[in-house]
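Human: I hope this is not a bother. Would you mind checking the protein record under this note? Thank you for your patience.
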Amino acid sequence: MRAGAFSPNHIGNDTAIFNLVAEQLRKRGCEVRIYSEEQLIAGAVDNDVVLNMCRERRSIEVLQEMEDKGALVINSGYGIENCTRERMTRLLLGSGIPYPDSLIVNTDEAVRDRLRRGNFERCWIKRGESHAMHREDVSYARHAEEAQEILQEFFLRGIKRAVINRHLEGDLIKFYGVAGSNFFYWFYPFEQNHSKYGDEQINGKPHHDKFDAEKLKAMCQKASEVLGVVIYGGDCIVSPEGSINIIDFNDWPSFAPCRQDAAPHIARYVINAIKEHKKR
């Protein structure tokens, strides 16, 4: 299970989807044992199939070690690491997946002039080296001076690296998907009052600008492959012209609005992955 520190404002939702998938696996004849991240780190898990929502730094290292020794790990520890902000930014931009113009910086850098030159007046400052744990790990800046102040706060909190994304105007859409399945769900979080920190208010009420939903699905599937995560979710911005940019991509999110539908698809993916793993 995911440690509570990495389920800010979503502990109940993360637990719910995890337990639903475990229930679906048991219905399909699997023996399922549930552990905490602390138990994983302590060495209590020696199974050859590991389904996880982990995000602790040491947990990711343990998962990678298990994977290297031949265990089936879903999501891959390497994929989870790829969803940390700096790695994700480099991989998505390097793969040609539409993503906001970005700067990757040390938090003790002076960035005001660079932001002005790059027209980053409105931007998002995001913790670079790990998953978000606190509301302040993803902060909106209205101008370069405010961005510099936020970066200084990151530095004082001991965060060494940050990603600065240009703010994009448009409709905010949240999505969820499972690789190797037909399951893909998207919605406007503002309309469902679905929020971790209230940041959805920045882009405001959606205008329902037209866009190609199949293109969004294909884009997310490609990002899933590039990052190496098979149970995924994230956020994108649809511009008034209908262009789509992924702005965040997460390893195993809560699936809160659609978990009853998602759980059987996740379980089927796991069963098929186990069958393929046993053939090797």
The beta strands are 49-51, 72-74, 102-106, 123-127, 138-141, 161-166, 171-178, 184-187, 231-238, 244-251.
